[in-house]
Design a protein that fits this description.
The strands form eleven sheets. The chain has a four-stranded mixed sheet. A four-stranded antiparallel sheet has the order 10-11-13-12, with helices on one face. By secondary structure, it is α+β, with helices and mostly antiparallel strands.
């Protein structure tokens, strides 16, 4: 271990509060991430890296229709001049701008391998080439006409735009994803024509609400298509608040293969899902036997997506097959909406749909005013020169003589003709060939034309109504270029209501129906053996544990478990541990209270009634559907007093109830004397001087009362012989008939 380092000598030692220093530095980092990396600007919908890529491409003259240039050239220029970060990060951003499955309206046109929907990455930038698309040209339209502010680049060697003019509603049309510090953004893509319609309505009705704009923008429009199954009310709430999510499903159809066979063909998958990963996941679930309705999955995609799903049998319902896949795979995805953007280029804020469009429109107005003032300045400079040229055309010979004879012709020209410095300079720069008589007529025509244009621009700058009319005309031109009649403008994502699956037991549909034997041990361990095991006496148990109960059922069943404190828990038979080992403790699957034990377990049957009773002889009848629990905590059904516990829960079959007490008194009474309840203590079944209830069963009086003796023989007491024990609920009863088991159980 080295010696501790002494602080440097001298007076420049400064004491800093560590907490304050960390806070200051972390805040600076957070602000840098929010402002310059992760959040898009509400006006042009771009993050700095994308804005720099597009501006860099414009500087390289990579306009639509121009020859392609190597992506390496673009990345190098952008990195060297504007974005001093990793070349791979810049190239990844460039690639995404070119992917038609990632961008609804790509900003870059790529040549070469730019990746695919399978999730494969693009080729290295030395192999690919790029140029801008028409959408990118619209975003940059007017940038050389003082449309936006510029700021110095990182090394002060040149300037870069703070924001682009954005003649295209890029923020919502292409969307954006980003994770900053303490905040994030997630904006799905939308249809440009619909956004233009909404913007035009907002110009006409400036106080329009988001709800009104939803008539034009019904929801996102993803580049990969799909079907949006989110309810309208939920979509409206998301756009009003700027936060929410959308359920997006794959588009599929049933393809008839003849002779009663068919397959499902998926032609569009949800946005952002890699096709290869999706198919791998389906194949994995198939191997794990979690998709029993599915027989096989194949990828037959070429240019278009084509994923073929074969059912296990032709009897399977296609809708149920797809519902099972939607539930377990990325064929259904949730696309989040978090409209968190930089407003005015500085303030992070979550906007509603109306506010987002208003930000874009206000920006378009600023751009229009700035470009108009820029053009006005150019016109005024040209008019000044034209007026000077027209003056000297009256005496060209004198002009030529001054230029030939004077050492300093400029001041002489200014003095002789009363010209300004700019006018004199323009005359001196005029070529001899321009001194023809015809030029004077052209100059007058240009003067008249520019004077008219100047008046129009001054009128536009003075009238707000004219400004909005001009912006509306520009937006209509954009809408025309991206109208629903065009290939790129046609809506790709459609809307549908999610099918009603309330009547379909999807849990059962997704589990392969197989016979099992459920085994519960005395120490509350549970397992499921394959098949219906006839002899459970040979089963092995852990340590001094042993068999409590076993019953036959199927993997699609629900298992109801009654605990000693009167709670009922529900388990899926398909999720029970296999029978090779000792199983798992039930406490791992449900929240069994301390001190509580399992009393009984049995398969749930819909529509049946259950008789529940506690050790103190109280009980009631409940509907099986009312005792099913949907959570680990279970459902409190039978309320028991301190010192007592739940004793039994049996299926009701018949019209009478027989009870036997610990005092060995038997009573039989009509079932209709018991109340039907969802929860409670119940009523007294039998009266005891001491002890409590041992067992109970329901039976049909016409068939008589039966029980099993200790030897496994069945005894039956007919209705006539049973008269002595028939009575009313809560009576004491009498000693049971001859042959009744000594253990006081009906068997």
């Amino acid at each position: 271990m080295g010696k501790p380092v002494d602080p440097p000598a001298g007076d420049h030692v400064e004491n800093v509060d560590l907490k304050a220093a960390l806070e200051e530095r972390y805040l600076a980092y957070a602000l840098s991430t929010i402002m310059h990396r992760a959040l898009p600007d509400a006006r042009d919908g771009l993050k700095p890296v994308h804005r720099r890529i597009l501006y860099g491409m414009q500087q390289l003259r990579l306009n639509p229709g121009a020859p392609f240039k190597k992506s390496a050239k673009v990345v190098g220029d952008v990195m060297g001049q504007f974005h001093p970060h990793g070349d791979q990060a810049i190239y990844d951003a460039l690639v995404r701008l070119a992917q038609d499955f990632a961008q609804r309206y790509p900003l870059v046109e790529g040549q070469g391998n730019f990746g695919n929907i399978d999730g494969d990455s693009a080729a290295a930038y030395r192999y690919t080439e790029a140029r801008m698309t028409e959408v990118a040209r619209l975003l940059l339209d007017g940038i050389d006409e003082d449309a936006v502010d510029f700021r110095p680049t990182y090394d002060d060697s040149s300037e870069e735009p703070v924001v682009l003019p954005a003649a295209f509603p890029n923020l919502l049309a292409n969307g954006s994803q980003g994770i900053a510090v303490g905040m994030a953004t997630s904006i799905p893509p939308h249809n440009a024509a619909e956004l233009c319609d909404a913007a035009l309505y907002l110009i006409k009705e400036p106080s329009a609400t988001t709800d009104q704009l939803l008539n034009f923008v019904p929801g996102p429009d993803f580049p990969t298509g799909g079907i949006l199954v989110e309810p309208k009310a939920s979509i409206g709430e998301a756009y009003r608040t700027g936060r929410g999510s959308f359920r997006l499903r794959a588009r599929w159809h049933k393809e008839d293969l003849g002779r009663g066979t068919w397959s499902v063909v998926v032609t569009e998958i949800p946005y952002g899902v890699a096709k290869s990963r999706l198919i791998e996941k389906i194949a994995e679930l198939l191997q794990e036997r979690k998709l029993p309705l599915l027989g096989d999955v194949r990828d037959e995609s070429a240019e278009d997506v084509r994923v073929v799903l074969e059912p296990k049998s032709r009897a399977v319902d296609a809708a149920i097959l797809m519902e099972s896949l939607f539930r377990l795979t990325e064929l259904e995805a949730r696309v989040p909406l978090n409209l968190n953007v930089l407003t005015s280029g500085q303030v992070p804020k979550v906007l509603s749909l109306a506010e987002a469009l208003r930000e874009w429109l206000d920006h378009r107005r600023d751009v229009l005013l700035r470009r108009s003032r820029f053009r006005l300045g150019e016109i005024e400079r040209r008019l000044e020169i034209l007026n000077g040229l027209l003056i000297v055309y009256l005496d060209l010979d004198r002009v030529i003589r001054i230029i030939r004879e004077e050492d300093e012709p400029k001041p002489e020209l200014m003095k002789a003709f009363g010209l300004t410095d700019v006018q004199a300079e323009a005359i001196l720069n005029t070529r001899l060939r321009s001194l023809r008589k015809l030029e004077e007529m052209e100059l007058k025509r240009e003067l008249d034309s520019l004077t008219t244009e100047k008046a129009q621009i001054e009128g536009l700058l003075a009238a707000s109504e004219t400004q909005w009319k001009t912006i509306a005309w520009q937006i209509r031109e954009v809408r025309k270029a991206f109208s629903p009649e065009t290939a790129i403008g046609r809506r790709r994502t459609s809307f549908a209501d999610a099918p009603d699956t309330a009547g379909i037991d999807l849990t059962e549909a997704m589990v392969e129906r197989e016979p099992i034997t459920v085994v519960v041990s005395r120490k509350s361990w549970i397992r499921a053996m394959k098949g219906h095991v006839a002899d459970v006496s040979t089963l092995q148990f852990k340590g001094d544990d042993g068999l409590k109960l076993a019953f036959h059922t199927e993997t699609t069943a629900k298992i109801l478990i009654l605990s000693s404190n009167g709670k009922v828990f529900t388990l899926d038979a398909s999720r029970l541990p296999g029978g090779r080992g000792f199983g798992d403790p039930v406490r791992l699957m449900v929240d069994l209270d301390d001190g509580a034990e399992i009393v009984t377990a049995f398969p749930y049957k819909a529509g049946v009634k259950l008789l529940l009773a506690s050790t103190d002889g109280r009980g009631f009848v409940a509907q099986a559907d009312d005792v099913v629990a949907n959570t680990r905590k279970g459902r409190q059904v039978l309320n028991v007093d301190a010192g007592q516990s739940a004793l039994l829960c049996i299926e009701v079959a018949g019209d009478h109830v027989a009870t036997i007490g610990q005092n060995r008194k038997l009573l039989a009474f009509p079932l209709d004397q018991m109340p039907e309840m969802g929860r409670g203590k119940g009523v007294r079944l039998q009266k005891f001087k001491d002890g409590g209830l041992s067992d109970a069963k329901t039976f049909a009086l016409a068939d008589g009362l039966t029980w099993l003796d200790t030897s496994g023989r069945t005894w039956t007491v007919g209705p006539e012989e049973l008269k002595d024990w028939l009575g009313n609920r809560a009576e004491a009863g009498r000693l049971p008939p001859k042959g009744f088991p000594k253990n006081n159980r009906f068997g």
